[in-house]
Design a protein that fits this description.
The complex is a heterodimer of chains A (about 100) and B (about 625).
Chain A: H1 2-7, H2 19-50, H3 52-55, E1 59-60, E2 63-64, H4 65-95
Antiparallel strand pairs in A: 1-2
Helix pairs in contact in A: 2-4
Chain B: H1 2-25, H2 31-36, H3 43-54, H4 57-70, H5 75-99, H6 104-111, H7 115-147, H8 152-202, H9 207-211, H10 221-231, H11 244-260, H12 262-265, H13 274-310, H14 317-320, H15 336-344, E1 347-349, E2 369-372, H16 376-379, H17 381-384, H18 389-427, H19 433-456, H20 465-486, H21 492-515, H22 519-540, H23 549-565, H24 589-607, H25 613-622
Antiparallel strand pairs in B: 1-2
Helix pairs in contact in B: 1-8, 1-18, 3-8, 3-13, 3-18, 4-13, 4-18, 5-11, 5-13, 6-7, 6-20, 7-8, 7-18, 7-19, 7-20, 7-21, 7-22, 8-13, 8-18, 8-19, 10-13, 11-20, 11-24, 18-19, 20-21, 20-24, 21-24, 22-23
The chains are: A mainly alpha (about 100), B mainly alpha (about 625).
C-alpha cells in the first residue's frame, strides 16, 4: 500500500478522473457494501432473531448460541464490519487514486 | 449513607468543574467552529464524543435493568442501538461528510433543491430533538434528587445551566471535548462495579466472559437463572414474550432510526475528511460496544444475585431502622444494600404472609418485593459488589455525564436548526456571521429554557421518547438521505412526499397506541402544523404570489389548535395492543413507516421530473471522497 502511495498524488483536488474510473470505483464500493450488509443482516436479524430457536441447540460457553448472538455476538461483528469497510475502502480508493488520506 | 453523600457531591462537583474548564478552553469564535468544531476533530476523539452523545441516561442507568427484567426481549435494544452504526458508516456518514455542510436539513435542502424540503427536515429535527432532550433533563433532575437530596426542579436547573454554559460558549467544539471527558467518566463508572460483580459471581474479571461462564458452583450462569426464574413463576430469561415479527420490527426501527438521528449524524460533520467519518464511526461503535456488551452481563449478574441473596432471606427490622449494622446480621439475612435502597423508594418490601422473609415471585398476589425499580440494578451494583462508598458517587457522576452529554448534542441540533437552517437559509439569507452566531447562542438558551420546563413538568410524550425519536428518524430522515446519495433520480417531489407520509403514519400510529388522541393532543398537533405551515409560507413565498393557501391553512389549523387545547375537539379512544397492525408495537412501527416512506419516495419520484443536472452532479461528487470529480466535460 505504501509503495502505491508514492505514485498517487496526495491532494487530488484539481485533477479529474474519467467517468469509467468513477463508475468502476462506485461499483466496487457497492459490492463491498453489499457483502458487508448481508453479514450485518445475518448476524443480527438472522442469527439473533429469525434462526435463533434453531441455533439455540448449540451453545457458546454456558449461553445458547442464538441468544448469545442477539445479546453479544452481533455487536462484536458490527464493530468488525465497520473497520473492515474502512480498511477495504482505503485500499479501493488508493487503487483508483481517489484517497483523501495523506498517511 | 453520609460518606456516600459526600463522595457523590465530590464527584458531581469535580466532574462539573472539569466540563466548565473544558468549555472555557474550547470557546468557539466562528460559525464553522460553533456548528462543526472547525471540521478538525480527530476520528478517535470524535468516536468517543459520539459514544457519549449517543449513550443517554437511559443507556447508562436503565438499560441493564430493562434487560434484567425482559431477558431475551432486551436484545432489541442491544442490537438496535448498535447495528445502526454499521448503516451509518457504510451508507451515510462518509457521504454526508463529503457534502461538507453543517446540518442535516442543509443536506436535505440542497440535495432536493427545495426550501419546502428543508423546512420539513427542520421540523422533523426539532421535534425529534425536543422529545429526546426532555427525557434527559428529567433524568438529571431525578439523579440529583435521589443522591444529593435536592428537589428535582433544582437538579434540572443546575444540569441545564452546566449544559448551557458549555454549549453556548463552545458550540460544537466545546461540546465535543466535554463529551470526550464525559465518555471517560461514564465508562469508568459503569465498568468498575461491573468488573467486581463479575469477579464475585463468576470468578472472571471480564463481564463478557462471565456472561457465558459458570456460577461459583460450576453450573452455567444463564441456565441456572432460567431454571430459578421458572421456579418462581417467571418467564425463562433466554426466552422472550414479544412475537418474532415485533422483535424484528423494533430492532430494525431502532437501527435505522439511529442512523437517521440528527444529533448522531452531525457528529460526523466534525471530522476532517470522508475517510475519517468511516473510521470515526468504527471507533464510536467500539466505545459504545464496551458498555453495550457489558450491560447484558450486568443484567444477568444482577438478576441472579438479586434472587440468590434477597429471595427467602430473613428481613431484619432492626437493620432497616439503622439500629444494627448489616454486617452483624446472621447468615440468611437480607443483605445490607437492600435496606439502604429501601430508603430511596426504589425498592419496597411488604411482608404479605407475615413470615418475616422476602418472597420474590412473578405472581402479584404472593410477590413481596412490591417496588423494584429497574435502575436499581445499576445503582446498587457497587454495594452488592462490596465496593467502597466513593464508587457509588462515581456511578452517579457517570449517570449525569451520560445525560448531560446527550442533552448537549441535542441542544446543538436545536440551536443550529433554528439559527442556520431556519433563520439563515430560509428567513434572512443575507444575515452576517456574527448575527448568525448570536442567534445560534440565543436559540440554545431558548431551547434550554424549554428543556428545563419539560424536565420539571414532563409532558406525557416523554414516556414515548424511544418510539417517537427513532420511529420518526427511521421514517423520515433515513429514506430521504439514503435515496439522496444512492439514487440520482430521486427528486424533491419524492423526498417531500416520502418524508411527510413516513412522519404522518408513524406519528399517528405511535400517538394512537401510546398517548391517545385526546382533544388537547389534537390541539397541540394542530398548533405545531399551523406553525409549520406559516414557516413554509414565509420560506417559500416568491415575490407577489396572489393566493397564499398555506397561510389560510395555517390560520385554520391555529383555530383548530385553539379549540383542541380548550378541550372542544372530540377525543378518539387510545388503541390497545391487540389492535396492533400485524402485531407490531409502536416502538417497531418505524420499520413500517420507513418502508412506506421508501415506496412513496420512489413512486412519486418516478412519476415526476428528474432532478436538474447540477443536483445530479452534486450526487456524483459526494460519492467520491477526495475529488471534485464529475465526468470529463467539466475540466
Amino acid at each position: 500500500m505504501d509503495s502505491m502511495d508514492n505514485h498517487t498524488p496526495h491532494r487530488t483536488e484539481d485533477h479529474d478522473v474519467g467517468e469509467d474510473v468513477t463508475r468502476a470505483y462506485w461499483r466496487e464500493n457497492l459490492s463491498l457494501m453489499g457483502i458487508l450488509l448481508v453479514i450485518w443482516f445475518a448476524v443480527s436479524f438472522g442469527a439473533g432473531i429469525l434462526a435463533r430457536d434453531w441455533l439455540d441447540q448449540f451453545s457458546i460457553g454456558g449461553a445458547p448460541l442464538g441468544f448469545w448472538f442477539a445479546q453479544q455476538g452481533a455487536i462484536f461483528v458490527f464493530v468488525a464490519l465497520i473497520f473492515v469497510y474502512s480498511f477495504r475502502m482505503h485500499q479501493i480508493e488508493k487503487k483508483y487514486g481517489m484517497s483523501d488520506d495523506n498517511d | 449513607m453520609d460518606s456516600t453523600l459526600l463522595w457523590t457531591a465530590f464527584f458531581v462537583i469535580a466532574t462539573f468543574g472539569l466540563y466548565i474548564g473544558i468549555a472555557i478552553w474550547a470557546r468557539a469564535g466562528s460559525t464553522d467552529e460553533f456548528y462543526v468544531a472547525g471540521h478538525d476533530v480527530p476520528p478517535v476523539f470524535n468516536g468517543m464524543a459520539t459514544a457519549a452523545d449517543w449513550m443517554s441516561a437511559a443507556s447508562f442507568l436503565s438499560m441493564a435493568g430493562i434487560i434484567a427484567f425482559s431477558g431475551y426481549d432486551g436484545s432489541v435494544y442491544l442490537m438496535g442501538w448498535t447495528g445502526g452504526y454499521v448503516l451509518l458508516a457504510l451508507l451515510l456518514a462518509p457521504y454526508l461528510r463529503k457534502f461538507g455542510k453543517f446540518t442535516v436539513p442543509d443536506f436535505v435542502g440542497d440535495r432536493y433543491y427545495s426550501q419546502a424540503a428543508r423546512i420539513v427536515a427542520v421540523i422533523c429535527a426539532l421535534f425529534i430533538s425536543f422529545t429526546y432532550i426532555a427525557g434527559q433533563m428529567r433524568g438529571v433532575g431525578i439523579a440529583f434528587s435521589n443522591f444529593l437530596h435536592v428537589p428535582i426542579e433544582i437538579g434540572v436547573v443546575v444540569g441545564a445551566i452546566i449544559v448551557l454554559f458549555y454549549a453556548v460558549l463552545g458550540g460544537m467544539k466545546g461540546i465535543t471535548y466535554t463529551q470526550v471527558a464525559q465518555y471517560c467518566v461514564l465508562i469508568f463508572a459503569f465498568m468498575v462495579p461491573a468488573i467486581f460483580l463479575s469477579l464475585q459471581i463468576t470468578g472472571t474479571p471480564i463481564p463478557q466472559l462471565g456472561f457465558i461462564g459458570n456460577a461459583q458452583d460450576g453450573t452455567p450462569l444463564l441456565l441456572n437463572l432460567d431454571r430459578t426464574l421458572v421456579e418462581l413463576g417467571f418467564q425463562p430469561y433466554t426466552e422472550g414474550l414479544k412475537s418474532k415479527i415485533d422483535v424484528f420490527a423494533i430492532a430494525l426501527a431502532l437501527m435505522v432510526g439511529t442512523a437517521g438521528l440528527p444529533h448522531v449524524i452531525i457528529r460526523f460533520f466534525t471530522v476532517p475528511k470522508a475517510s475519517d467519518a468511516r473510521k470515526s464511526a468504527g471507533w464510536a461503535l467500539v466505545f459504545i460496544a464496551v458498555l453495550y456488551t457489558t450491560a447484558p452481563a450486568v443484567a444477568v449478574f444482577a438478576r441472579s444475585n438479586f434472587i440468590d441473596t434477597v429471595n427467602e432471606s430473613t428481613y431484619s427490622q432492626a437493620a432497616a431502622n439503622g439500629e444494627i449494622s448489616a454486617s452483624e446480621l446472621p447468615e440468611g439475612s437480607t443483605p445490607g444494600w437492600f435496606y439502604n435502597w429501601e430508603d430511596t423508594g426504589l425498592l419496597g418490601f411488604t411482608d404479605l404472609n407475615g413470615d418475616g422473609r422476602i418472597q420474590y415471585r412473578a405472581d402479584p398476589d404472593t410477590n413481596e418485593v412490591t417496588t423494584l425499580d429497574r435502575d436499581i440494578f445499576v445503582l446498587a451494583n457497587p454495594e452488592i459488589g462490596g465496593l467502597p462508598a466513593w464508587v457509588i458517587g462515581l456511578v452517579v457522576a457517570g449517570g449525569l455525564a451520560a445525560a448531560l452529554s446527550t442533552a448537549a448534542g441535542l441542544l446543538m441540533v436545536i440551536s443550529s436548526a433554528v439559527s442556520h437552517d431556519l433563520c439563515k437559509k430560509v428567513l434572512m439569507p443575507d444575515m452576517s456571521e456574527t448575527r448568525e452566531l448570536l442567534i445560534a447562542r440565543s436559540a440554545a438558551v431558548g431551547a434550554v429554557l424549554i428543556a428545563i420546563l419539560a424536565g420539571i413538568y414532563p409532558p406525557g410524550f416523554v414516556a414515548a421518547v424511544v418510539a417517537f425519536a427513532f420511529g420518526l428518524a427511521a421514517a423520515s430522515f433515513f429514506p430521504a438521505i439514503f435515496l439522496g446519495i444512492f439514487w440520482k433520480r430521486m427528486n424533491k417531489e419524492g423526498a417531500i412526499a416520502g418524508m411527510t407520509t413516513g412522519l404522518l403514519i408513524t406519528g399517528v400510529y405511535i400517538i394512537h397506541f401510546k398517548i391517545g388522541f385526546s382533544s388537547i393532543v389534537l390541539g397541540v398537533l394542530a398548533l405545531i402544523l399551523a406553525i409549520a405551515s406559516a414557516i413554509l409560507f414565509l420560506g417559500t413565498r416568491t415575490g407577489q404570489t396572489s393566493t397564499p393557501p398555506l397561510l389560510y391553512a395555517a390560520g385554520a389549523l391555529a383555530l383548530a389548535g385553539l379549540l383542541g387545547v380548550l378541550g372542544l375537539l372530540p377525543a378518539i379512544a387510545m388503541g390497545t395492543p391487540d389492535q396492533w397492525i400485524l402485531g407490531i408495537s409502536p416502538e417497531g412501527f418505524g420499520t413500517v413507516g420507513m418502508l412506506v416512506s421508501f415506496a412513496v419516495s420512489v413512486g412519486v419520484s418516478l412519476a415526476t421530473q428528474a432532478p436538474p443536472q447540477d443536483v445530479q452532479d452534486l450526487v456524483e461528487e459526494i460519492r467520491i471522497p477526495s475529488i471534485r470529480a464529475h465526468p470529463v466535460k467539466d475540466p
